[in-house]
Structures
1.
Amino acid sequence: MTMPYLQFNDITKTFGNLDVISPPFSLTIPHHQFMVFLGPSGCGKTTLMRMVGGLETASTGMIALQGEAIGEPDSRRGMVFQSYSSFPWLTVEENVAFGMRFRHDLTKTEKRDRAQHYLELVGLSNFAASYPNRISGGMRQRVAIARTLAAGSEILLMDEPFGALDAQRREQLQVELRRIQKEERKTIIFVTHDVEEAVYLADRIIVFSQRPASILEDIDVTAQIGDDRLLELRESPEFLKLRSSVLHTVRAALGSTQ
Ligand SMILES: Nc1ncnc2c1ncn2[C@@H]1O[C@H](COP(=O)(O)OP(=O)(O)OP(=O)(O)O)[C@@H](O)[C@H]1O
């Protein structure tokens, strides 16, 4: 039997008197899966993600990565949040290189090559020497993604990373992220409120109930719309059908009838 890659084993979480994850939450995420967590505000998605990152501990239960309990944050698990705080006194390339500061296995030249490779991947080669306050919010988000990839994280934990972007940049980054995830074979947990974004990006969507969070639905997106996410797919009948059914599930989670 193969070892599960990332496994939530009977997790519960309480903050004081507040039950955030309950009943015990269990989920297995295979290697290289693009997983999207979708659910009402405040239901506990971020808390679950922070647990994978090692920033929060479960009240009961365990999260295991390849059979080993998750502990302190390390560079295997990289986090990208909605608002990225870059260092204004470092260039774009230096900000990306900063993600590799603990990679003592890499020489200075290798770090530089890697930084350039990932900047190219996110389409920012021409801005390597720019300073963060001279580029747009969307570009800064790409810097954050490049930095996390350059660090060599095999799991990307992304908490509404595109939330603050305008629709056009958001769509562009969705396309790029999906491409990078497939090319680099990353495992991603991506939190969003946006159903369209969820369906476009995900191999699989977990829809959460209101707090305390439990799984309302586990949707195999790839089985329904395939692996190849061309932009045109968003207008296809199968995409629209799935989007509408996910929307209904999310509305049901909020307790409204329509
Ligand atoms: N450190 C903490 N101490 C006390 N309560 C907390 C703490 N962290 C989170 N909570 C509470 O736990 C609940 C779940 O929060 P969480 O951020 O995980 O939700 P979420 O589903 O990610 O919400 P959103 O989509 O709005 O970001 C919220 O009610 C929040 O106020």
2.
Amino acid sequence: MAAAAATATLSDDDAEERVAATNAQMMLLTRKMIEIRNTLQEISTGGGSRSLTRVQLPSIVVVGSQSSGKSSVLEAIVGHEFLPKGNNMVTRRPIELTLINSPDAAAEYGEFPALKLGKITDFAQIQKTLTDLNLAIPDSEAVSDDPIRLNIYSPHVPDLTLIDLPGYIQIAAADQPESLKSKITSLCDKYIASPNIIVAISAADVDLANSTALRAAKRVDPRGERTIGVITKLDLVDPGRAIDLLQNRSYPLQMGYVGVVSKVPSSLATRASSGLLSRFSGSGDSGDIGSVIAKNEEVYFGRHPVFTRALTDADDRTGQQQVTLGVINLRNKLMRILERTMAKNLQPACDAIHQELEETAYQFKVEYNDRPITAESYLAQSLDSFKLSFKEFAGKFGREQVRAMLKSELDQRVLDLLAQRYWNRLDEDPDLALATLDDATIKSILRPVSELPSAPSDDVYWHRQLDACVSNLTKSGVGRTSTTLVSNALSGEMEHLVNSGAFKTHPYVKTIVQDATMEILNSRFYSTADQVENCIKPYKYEVEVEDQEWSKSREHAFALLKEEVRQCEAAYYKLQRSVGGGKKLSQVEKFVEKSRKGLVKMEDANEIYGFSQALIDKGREGLFLTKRADILRLRMQALKSKQCKSKDSKYYCPEIFLDVVADKLTQTAVLFLNVELLSDFYYHLPRELDARLGHGLGPQKMENFAKENAKVRRHLELQERKQKLELAAEKIESVIAMQKTRRLQPA
Ligand SMILES: Nc1nc2c(ncn2[C@@H]2O[C@H](COP(=O)(O)OP(=O)(O)OP(=O)(O)O)[C@@H](O)[C@H]2O)c(=O)[nH]1
């Protein structure tokens, strides 16, 4: 019986029901206030708020020297071991602990809101994470005032917010910075400032006059209005001495002292207990360490009548300071105190929220004309704008553009073939010619193209040259080349569009667009290339030419040669400048020519003539360009001649005939590229983007996307701030209303 009395007389059924009802009501209020406090905290972290920082709802802050039993008390309240342990000063950052009573929670779990690790049901894992987060502060710094936020959900905890701080030290250890003591003190000072409630922990076996926690509390709360003294390790001193300590007269506290024995006794550590803590939730035995400790305290205090007497005396109001015993009563007391002090701050907080809300609403009206925005609407708008620029591009890049692109590619191929089979002169320029010829051509000695206009019409040599060129051109993999060209052009343009349009500041979405582009293009690549190749097959055997086609190609071939001449001249001019003038270049060219005729020796170039190897190479290039331009001019004349007017002279005018072939290949390829690749891509890409960037993105990614744009981010943040303030105002008003109703109810 004595034991039951010592732990707050919970034996009587009526009393129990009353306590439960009060607890439930209190928890509802406290929870609402904690929610408001957290909302306000989010608003303050989201951007400097002037009026909100002035008024804040209080937190409970736990301070104590190292090894005073701080962790043991907190763990007894939570019911689990979860705080970092070790000799190496493991609490280096404030731990802001929010306990959330969740009666329906299937399991107890913790969450680190800033880390986004999800629910952690293994408390050993929570302990490890806390240890890692603390030890991430280097030994040289030892403490940081950047808090770790941890929420614990459980049916066995009350709604409470507690802040655990690094323990006070007397002197810094050898490996700790000198300034550590003062660093810890100023960190704690920051937290024990008004209006927070201070839980000052002192161990019974250490002289209270030396308690750093009580001394610090006295400094900031000299009248003992917001400090609770907690004396741990009562079992280590004589019970009579314990009672003396709990009635500490040198620092009287209005909320009194609470004595606890918060160590899990080894004999009880593994046994499920009577479940005293679980009375909070009305569930059965919790089996947590809180219950084990409570059971142990019940037995310990019951064993010593002096504790029962102290409680009775206090109840009788004999002038003694109020005495409270046990972790459960500490917990209840904390809840009551939190509620009371929060209630005191409710009206000022409510006023501050309203003031802040008014300012924010005004800003929102002025800057955004009350225009609401969502990440989703911003994404939809950006996607629409992107699709619009895509449509514009599609309008500009059609069949005609593909035709021009492919024709210019084939023109280049035709020029290369002509150079190989007609224009390179093996006899005059063996070095350069050899480098560009295939073995078969080298074997068939090239005849100078100047002989072509006067060759007999049945000259097999010239027939073979043209047939080889045509065969080479038609069998050069036009299907693959043309498909690659168009694919590259499309993916290049998409790259340009994402880098310049609505998505230019959105790297994640850029990748999605590029991936979708590549997937569509790749999936069509082989079938398109095969279809094009199939359709140009007939030209591999026979090419029929119309008069009109011939004359069109005659003009085009002439223009091509003219452009080639221009390029030769430009290159020659550049070469002249690079060797220091035309005179120098022609000297070197002459030397190279003489050496080809055997009139001078190449080995003497440097020593006798002072021409470096680089200069000789340039001389060779100069000679090549001059001769190439001569041949091209000759060929231009030929194309203009009467001989090349008729399509029947195809062997005399290979430039024209090859252009006809290139043109036919282009026209046929474009037909299929347009249908199979271009139109298909233009049709599918917008649909694919709708699928990937619509709801497929998910709310978090959508928000991340929207906030990548600084302007939108500001708009969204201001809007969120306004919404949070509205919510906080609504909640705080309902809490104030609840308070009023409670006050009106009979006790
Ligand atoms: N006998 C007894 N030992 C206790 C009691 N409370 C805590 N201890 C022991 O005292 C030691 C220190 O307790 P902690 O809870 O780790 O103390 P702390 O203040 O958190 O220590 P730091 O984390 O180092 O600051 C541990 O060995 C506990 O088991 C108690 O009420 N009675």
